[in-house]
Amino acid sequence: MFLHSLIPRILGLLLLISPSWTADPTCFQPGFCANSFAIDEPSTADAIECLLACQANPECQWFSFFGQVRHCALLTECKEFKPDQANVISGAKDCEIPPQICGQAGKCEETAMIFSNVSVSVDACGNRCQLWDDCRFYSYETANDICQLFSACESFDDSAFITNARHCEIQDVPLLLLANGFPAYRKVSVLDLSQSLDEDQPDISPPDEYIIGVEGASGFVMQDRPTVCGGEGYGIVWERCFQLDPESQEWLEIAAMSVQRFQAPSVAFTPNSLGQEVAWILGGIGNESQYWTSTEILQDGTFSLGPDLPTPLHGACALTWDHNDVWVIGGSSDKDLALKGTLRFSWSEGQWTSGPDLNVGRFGHACLVRDGKVIVAGGLNADLEPIDSVEMLDNGVWTEVAKLPFPVSGASLFDLNGEVIFLGGVNSEGKFLDSVFHMKTDHWTKLIETFEYAREFFNVFFHRV
C-alpha cells in the first residue's frame, strides 16, 4: 500500500481518537509542487520524516514526499501545486505532525502484518519498526514478548496487544558490550537486543580486544567508562585494571590493585558519606590460591585498602541501590562452598552485619537489583553442579521465583531499561552458552538464539557509540 493511500486512513483513525484535531489544507495533501527549486533530496521512510527533515533545514519552506521511491524533496517554495498526484504527499514547513496512535489497546489486522518475532520490550519493538521502511504501526504483547509490525492499521482487535504508530515516542534500547570470560578470553562483542532469534545482528564494529585473556574479572562502570580489574587466564591471576576509552575505543591501563584477584565481586557507586564515586572490589582468590578477606577501593584513580570482609569470599556477587549499603550475596569461602549467607556493609555506620539467608546456597551466580528488589540467578551448588534456581529478595525475605530454562553458572544478569536480561554462562553438560533470556512473571522468554563468542564468567556493560 503506497503512502498516498495510507495517509487518509491514518488521519481517519486519528480523528476518531483525537476529534479536536483537524488537518490543515496545506498539510499532507496528495500532490506535489511543480516548477519549484529543491535544496535537498534526502531519502526518508514516510511523509512525516520528510516534514521533519524540512523543519530541520532553515532554507526549506515546503516538502514533497514520493512514496513509491521513498524520495523526499525539500523546497524553497511551492510555485505550482499539482493536486491528486499518485504516491506523492506535500505540505508546508509549518505543518503540525498529526497526533499519533500511541498505546492503543489491541493489535492491527493480520492482513497488513509484515513481521512477527519476540522482542525484549515495546521500545525494542518500536526500534525495529523504524528499521523497516514498510512499517507504519507496531503491536506488542508483554506477556510473551511478541512484536508484530504492520504496513497499515484500519482496525484493532480485542487482544492483549498494545499498538503504536511508527512515530510514537520510544526509548532507545542500548547496545550491550560483552568482554572477557572463558573461552572467549580477550574477545569483545556488541549485542543489540532490538534484534532477536533468527535476525542477523547489526554490523557494529566492537572496541579493541581486551588486553589480557581473562575470566572471572571484576567489572564495573566508573565515570561512564567500562572498567575491568584482575581475573584469571592461562593459570595467571592478575592485579591490572583497564578502562575502555569512549573516543578511541581502546582499553587503557589505569591503577593496579595491591594483590591479584580472581572472582572478586565488585560494585561502583557514590556513597552518601563520601559524595564521590568509588569502586569497591572485595575478596577473591590470589595467584597462589589465597582466599582474600581484604578489599580495595578505587577512588580518584588510586587504590587504597577498604574494610576487610568478615570471612574470605570469592564467587559472590555485590550490589547497592541506596548509596549507603553494599550487599554481598552467597559465594564460597576457604571452608565452605555455595554459601547461603548474605552480608551488608553500611558506609554510614562503617560495619558489617548479616542479612537474610538465601533458600539455595550458591556461588558463581549472577545478581542485580531492580525497583528495590534483589534478584539472584543460577550458579553452582556445593557439588559443583549448575543450578536453575532464581530468588528474589523483597522486604527482607528471599522467595524462589521462575526458574531458569536450565541449570547454568557463570552467566550475567543485566537491567535493560527496567527489563531483567539473563545471558551466557555454562550448562550442566559443560556447554558454553550464547543465548539471551528475558525474565517474565512465571517464565523466561528466549530473545536471542546465539550471539558471537559464547562465554562464562564475563563482563557486560552498556556500549556507548
Automatic annotation (TrEMBL):
Cross-referenced InterPro entries: Apple, Kelch-typ_b-propeller, Kelch_1, Pan_app
Keyword Repeat tagged: yes
Pfam families for this protein: Kelch_1, PAN_1
Limits of the Apple domain: 27-95
UniProt signal peptide: 1-22
GO BP annotations listed: proteolysis
Entry keyword set: Disulfide bond, Kelch repeat, Repeat, Signal
GO CC, one annotated term: extracellular region
Name by which UniProt lists this protein: Apple domain-containing protein
Organism whose genome encodes this protein: Tigriopus californicus
